[in-house]
UniProtKB/TrEMBL annotation:
Annotated Pfam families: BTAD, TPR_12, Trans_reg_C
UniProt feature, compositional bias: Pro residues: 288-299
Keyword Repeat recorded: no
Species classification: Bacteria, Bacillati, Actinomycetota, Actinomycetes, Kitasatosporales
The protein's name in its UniProt record: Putative AfsR family transcriptional regulator
Length: 999
């Protein structure tokens, strides 16, 4: 299939177009195509389609939109729009989308241009530009479309300007004139096009026409926008007036950075060269030329950039962003008292400055040097570079020492460089005034180390790299921060291929992907792994991945023998800069086994035992967390507000520090770590218990031992917040349960497991449900907690019964025996009820009815309403299967009355969904549909996916009986997706039903 977004949305299969009829479906398809083969959450779709003011039913409407989109796709392609826990994904080859083909062609063209292959670059660019059929996303009216349309338009202009530069480099200026003339006529305010057209005209022997173009553009900018001409127009005009070969416009225009390194001979550091200053530009061509002035003294043009790192991959968006920042017009050229500065660029009061930040080993230096080489031509007065060693106490550079080196490189004689640091700064800024220099300050520690080295000249552009955020530098200078993250898997694998050899990766692609994942996408770790593969040719890539797989061995494997280049070494520089409190939090944070840690849980790590639990994050802990984030030892995931995460390798380094002292309570450090683990588990138990109280306030409470002592208000305002907490923290609860087992914290393990039961069951994570309850029961037995052991055996039986596994019987019989030994008839009755449910799943209806009738009798005798409505429900299902539909209806009507009186909102919805099933058999199709629709809304809100699937299935059955086949099909297809997503065997039942009616 092929999809086209560079114009109106078009879709085709095997060359035959197919229509996506409704505007909202077209908008959703466009957004999914822009994220081809990547998951898109329902929240992102809501934002994309409705923006900041979505309707209350937006999430439900997303389901409807996706269902409609599946119907609009060709039948054999409908399965490409997939649902999974991460969201929706349109599983199409990105190359089938013209936006992606355009981007890849432009990237390849940049590489060809950088390698001095202009013909190839021009061909790629023309092919890429031919993909455009008009305005991108034409006809798509959705909030996301405008910003995307603007971005794509800018990328198109960048490609057009790169094509013009390539053709000019190849000497094809004559043929370029008509193309650029037409383009400027269409877009008269594009300075880059005007400058390039003037260059082409000048080289074609038409200087008068070149000046006309430049002056008309100057007049338009002044009249329409109140702007002075930018640097590109000024330089092009000066070149024409001098009659010199014009400076290539690409050097100063915002074209994207090339995506591959310059050839080796140009990438290596150049020797400093002597270059005379350019002659002054005359005021106008009619003024007679003055006698030539004496030539100014020669000045040095430094070229201090180090060599480009081999194997650089990706970062296209960041490279383009830095190029645009460097190419933005200088404040003096573009800003007037009535014209504010351009957003995203430094203001007129400070230097032009970008700050590249990111964690140790993420490749900040390699990225910056790579970009600097590509942009060097735009800074004809040279490039200054220094490694400030900001995080190395032994080699840290001082500002006076760096200034001396810079001044010498700029041609200032040593005897003229003052000793006084302030005078040295003044001389530096005076020397660079009027020059166009690129200054790279690598590996900075803080604002004070950087400030004296910032040039004040508007023609200079400075890039600072640092592990810290350098917030003060950003605040005081208007610097633009640019954060580098780890590489995605495909780019990480490409790094391995480029460094270790593509044959190695092609021979074992799965092992290469595993190795990239074990390196966490961290360029330093990837480079070390690649060097090991090169230096140890007998080591297959799969064996190296196997060596790094155990967490306790990974950091040791990410180092080079006889070399100090290690991931641990890089991280140690950051760790040694921490205060004692920061270092303590860093170590303890690494003990948390989850990917994202709520800030409140992290704060708990620092509190002594017995401190009342807090619903928020105390200010001192919040400041410590922010300080660790500032130096990129912690990170805040965009999709988890209020949470903090650690890169896997950073976490392992922290645990390595903890392992040095262990969790042996006989030592102070070990006792601290052990207490932190207990405190963390208690925080989760307390929150899970509070959430359980809201989600099932009238249900039998699990037998926990917790006494809640909250500092401040309760953690959740309502059931919706409680449910959302379980969704966000479920993986952390499981991870803590396993960690508690490893550390023999039995008292905590069984409580974590029992409180997690309801959420895992509702979300139908049955394998994890069984694991958690098994671990909990074993922990309860280990400390002789018989009530907890019986409850967990009952839960374990439920988990197996839902999976239609006869092993459920053994667990439930163990629960019955445990409850009877404790003298708890209510618990034993519940276990028998669940044993009846197991027999029902296997359609052993008489045995099921025996257990359900016993549960009803026990519930009536004890007045246990929660047990009563559950047993009435389940007995009704048995009667329905026995053909006694009226009896089943009466039982469910009674169960509904009980649940409405004493149950939760979800319990009521569950009873109504079961009543709908029986009403289908009695021919009451519309009432069945209405009940199912109401249950569906509640189930979605509480995340009960099994009920969601069953309710949608019921809606399909009602519609097929009413002769509304298209709606039935849509509901059944959604039911199949839900059941498949949770691994339920009911998916196959619905598939058979669908095939029966639509084959």
């Amino acid at each position: 299939m092929r999809f086209r977004l560079l114009g109106a949305l078009e879709a085709s299969r095997d060359g035959a177009p197919f229509d996506v009829p409704r505007p909202r479906l077209r908008a959703a398809l466009a957004f999914l195509l822009l994220n081809a083969d990547r998951p898109v959450t329902a929240e992102r779709l809501v934002d994309a389609l409705w923006g900041e003011s979505p309707p209350r039913t937006a999430r439900n409407q997303v389901h409807t939109v996706v269902s409609g989109l599946r119907q609009a796709l060709p039948p054999e392609a409908a399965g490409l729009l997939r649902s999974d826990p991460a969201g929706y994904r349109l599983a199409v080859d990105p190359d089938s989308v013209d936006v992606e083909r355009f981007a890849r062609a432009v990237t390849a063209a940049r590489a060809a241009a950088a390698d001095r292959r202009p013909a190839e670059a021009a061909g790629l660019l023309r092919g890429a530009l031919d993909l455009w059929r008009g305005e991108a996303l034409a006809g798509i009216d959705a909030p996301f479309a405008g910003p995307v349309r603007t971005r794509l338009a800018e990328e198109r202009f960048a490609a057009l300007e790169l094509l013009a530069d390539t053709e000019l480099d190849a000497g094809r200026h004559h043929g370029l004139v008509p193309e650029l003339t037409a383009l400027l006529r269409e877009f008269p305010d594009r300075e880059g096009i005007a400058a390039r057209l003037a260059t082409a005209l000048h080289r074609s022997g038409r200087p008068a026409d070149a000046l006309t173009v430049l002056r008309e553009t100057r007049a338009l900018l002044a009249a329409e926008y109140g702007l002075d001409p930018g640097r590109a127009l000024q330089e092009a005009e000066a070149a024409v007036l001098r009659g010199d070969p014009p400076v290539r416009a690409a050097a100063t225009l915002p074209t994207p950075a090339p995506a591959t390194p310059a050839p080796a001979e140009s990438a290596a550091p150049e020797a400093e060269s002597v270059e005379p200053a350019a002659p002054a530009v005359p005021a106008a061509p009619a003024v007679p030329a003055a006698p030539p002035a004496p030539e100014p003294p020669a000045r040095l043009r430094p070229a201090q950039l180090p060599q480009v790192s081999h194997g650089f991959v990706g970062r296209r968006a960041e490279l383009d962003r830095l190029t645009c920042l460097a190419a933005a017009p200088t404040p003096s050229a573009r800003n007037t008292p009535d014209t504010p500065g351009i957003p995203g660029t430094p203001d007129a009061a400070g230097p032009r400055l970008a700050v590249v930040v990111g964690p140790a080993g993420v490749g900040k230096t390699a990225f910056t040097v790579r970009w600097a080489h590509s942009a060097a031509a735009g800074f004809p007065d040279g490039q200054l570079f220094v490694d400030l060693h900001g995080y190395d106490e032994n080699e840290r550079e001082t500002a006076p020492r760096v200034l001396e080196r810079f001044l010498l490189a700029l041609g200032v004689p040593g005897h003229r460089i003052p000793e006084d640091p302030v005078l040295r700064e003044d001389l530096y800024r005076s020397t660079v005034a009027g020059r166009r220099l690129l200054v790279v300050l690598d590996n900075a520690q803080d604002y004070e180390q950087v400030r004296p080295l910032l040039p004040g000249a508007p023609g200079c552009f400075t890039v600072v790299t640092s592990r810290g955020r350098l917030g003060r530098l950003v605040a005081q200078t208007g610097a633009v921060p640019l954060r580098l993250g780890v590489l995605p898997r495909d780019e990480a694998v490409e790094v391995l291929a480029r460094l270790a050899g593509p044959e190695l990766v092609r021979a074992a692609p799965a092992a290469a992907a595993d190795l990239a994942d074990l390196c966490g996408g961290l360029p330093l770790a990837l480079r070390i792994s690649a060097v090991r593969l090169i230096e140890e040719p007998e080591l297959p890539i799969g064996e190296l991945a196997g060596e790094l797989a155990p967490e306790q061995d990974r950091l040791a494997g990410l180092g080079l023998f006889g070399d100090d280049l290690t991931v641990s070494g890089a991280l140690s520089h950051s760790y040694r800069r921490l205060t004692p409190d920061q270092a303590r939090l860093f170590r303890l944070f690494s003990l948390h086994p989850g990917a994202v840690v709520p800030s409140g849980a992290a704060a708990t790590l620092l509190e002594p035992a017995g401190t009342p639990l807090s619903t928020g994050t105390p200010a001192p802990a919040r400041r410590l967390l922010r300080s660790l984030e500032d130096v990129h030892l912690l990170e805040r995931p965009a999709d988890a507000p209020g949470g903090y995460g650690m890169h896997d390798l950073v976490r392992l380094y922290g645990r390595q520090l903890v392992a040095a002292v262990g969790t042996d309570c006989r030592t102070a450090e070990g006792a601290e770590a052990a207490a932190a683990l207990d405190r963390l588990a208690e925080w989760y138990i307390a929150h899970a218990d509070a959430a359980y109280r809201l989600l099932d306030p009238k249900r039998l409470r699990p037998p926990t031992e917790l006494e809640l002592d909250w500092r401040g208000p309760a953690p959740f305002a309502d059931a919706d917040q409680a449910q959302q907490w379980f969704v966000q923290e479920s993986d952390n609860l499981l991870a803590l349960t396993r960690l508690g087992v490893a550390h023999r914290r039995h008292r905590l393990v069984w409580q974590l497991a029992i409180l997690h039961f309801t959420h895992l069951m509702r979300s139908h994570r049955l394998g994890l449900l069984a694991e958690a309850q098994r671990l909990g029961e074993e922990a309860a037995l280990a400390i002789g907690h018989r009530p907890a052991a019986a409850a967990l055996a009952n839960n374990l039986g439920i988990a197996y019964a839902i999976r239609r596994d006869r092993a459920a019987a053994g667990h439930l019989e163990r629960a019955i025996a445990g409850y009877e030994a404790l003298g708890e008839p209510g618990g034993a009755a519940r276990a028998r009820l669940n044993l009846g449910n197991m027999h029902y799943e296997f359609r052993e209806l008489d045995r099921a009815a025996h257990y359900q009738e016993g549960a009803v009798t026990a519930a009536r005798a004890t007045g246990d309403d929660a047990l009563l409505y559950q047993s009435l429900q389940n007995l009704a299902l048995v009667r329905n299967e026995q053909g006694r539909h009226a009896d089943a209806r009466d039982l469910l009507v009674e169960a509904l009355a009980v649940s409405e009186r004493t149950g939760t909102e979800l319990a009521v919805a569950d009873t109504r969904e079961k009543l709908a099933w029986v009403l289908q058999r009695l021919g009451e199709y519309q009432r069945a549909f209405d009940l199912s629709e109401g249950s569906l809304a509640v189930a979605r809100r509480f995340g009960d996916l099994l009920m969601v699937g069953r309710a949608v299935d019921q809606m399909g059955m009602a519609r097929i009986a009413q002769g509304r086949a298209a709606e039935a099909r849509e509901h059944w297809e959604e039911a199949i997706r839900v059941f498949t997503g949770i691994g339920s065997v009911e998916a196959e039942t619905v598939r058979r039903r669908l095939a029966e009616h639509f084959s």
